[in-house]
Amino acid sequence: MNESVAPGAFAERQPLSPDAFEAAIRAVGAERYHDKHPFHRLLHGGRLDRDQVRAWALNRYCYQEAVPRKDAAFISRVHDRELRREWIHRIHDHDGLGEEAGGIERWLVLTDALGLSRDYVTSRRGALPATKFAVEAYVRFVVEQPLVVAVASSLTELFAPAIHRERISGMLANYDFVDERAVAYFKRRLQQAPRDSGFALNFIKTNARTRAEQDACVDAVRFKCDVLWAQLDALHHAYVTPGITPPGAFRPGGATD
Amino acid sequence: MNESVAPGAFAERQPLSPDAFEAAIRAVGAERYHDKHPFHRLLHGGRLDRDQVRAWALNRYCYQEAVPRKDAAFISRVHDRELRREWIHRIHDHDGLGEEAGGIERWLVLTDALGLSRDYVTSRRGALPATKFAVEAYVRFVVEQPLVVAVASSLTELFAPAIHRERISGMLANYDFVDERAVAYFKRRLQQAPRDSGFALNFIKTNARTRAEQDACVDAVRFKCDVLWAQLDALHHAYVTPGITPPGAFRPGGATD
Fold this sequence. Notes:
homodimer, mainly alpha, Heme Oxygenase, Chain A
């Protein structure tokens, strides 16, 4: 036995218990979920003007639009039919199915209320490059990472209901250009997100078996928080302080068609 | 003007008319669809034994199972919500939705009838490597090619109803181990394939605008025919003549669990 090597230095670290694993996932929300970003405090507190809210809504459209593509990318990698059948309802939630129009349509009701043309919003022409890079990084992450880690990256949904409730009440109270119809997207997500995060949390508890896999899942939630945070950084930089707007991006008073 | 260059040598080739484009697509079927493969003649003519039919069914499972992943990969690349909403029913057709079990389940009813365990079939352990390489090449093609070319690669469905009708009648007439329930997959596809190929044909006629794009679409159908043909070549080589079965692949009388 080589006594210069500390005992256990090369030992496999023990997996966390399911409860400790869940606590580590949840701790990421407390550490870096985008509810803590100054831009959200401005948004929910009524301290943005209509153009700043428009900038937020049309950039966030890119994220909304990436989510069903991210979920399809996930399904494209899954050989387990039951898992595909479970996951596909996430695409239905966003794209709709048959008569149900879906969450992206509800998002466009919000951008309608803000006076933005649908062609302009869905073209993503006015969105900040940093927004598009961030959301496409999320799609790539789900393509490239192990499936359990890809599932873990959805778990920011654990933290979403609180921010959605705050957003609904804050935006309704503070902006006369936002009404009940315009916040329908968030109201629906209050039901959808807990169902989805419950499934995903159970999935990673079952399938992340080693400590290394568990750590990668916790890192995936950090990564996803970064994807969300980076979008608000870009908005804040372009439309609040210092207000440096990249060429081609939406400008207050500029063309939106 | 340089007279040493033939007139029109560098000119853009004119696009085909919609009818000529469709005819070029359909001509690929006459040229190389897998209905012409000797293995299919053996299969439909009742000249395979039960183990050879089992080998076909468990290899073809890999193709069935790749199709919804291929369709999800396609959706993951589509920014047009209406196109995603249209395409997603292809995933439902194979994976089912809610109460509807879907085409893969119907395929497993066939492999049940052949006495293969579901675990063995869905594990893909006994499938030929060439089968798996071919079907995954199809998934990659749809990930990597322009969307209109990816759509075109689905158009072997134009040629499918004829082979499905031949297969239903041939297998029912010739094999006492195949009954109506076991061929339910093919019966359902008789309705699904024409609807899907009609949409896809219309899509490529609208969206392949240059001759180069049209040529790439025709090549995509050739590629897809190659994917189907290669699977039968591998089956024929392993289970008919010369009967060289790769290590690990299903063997008549061997373990299937």
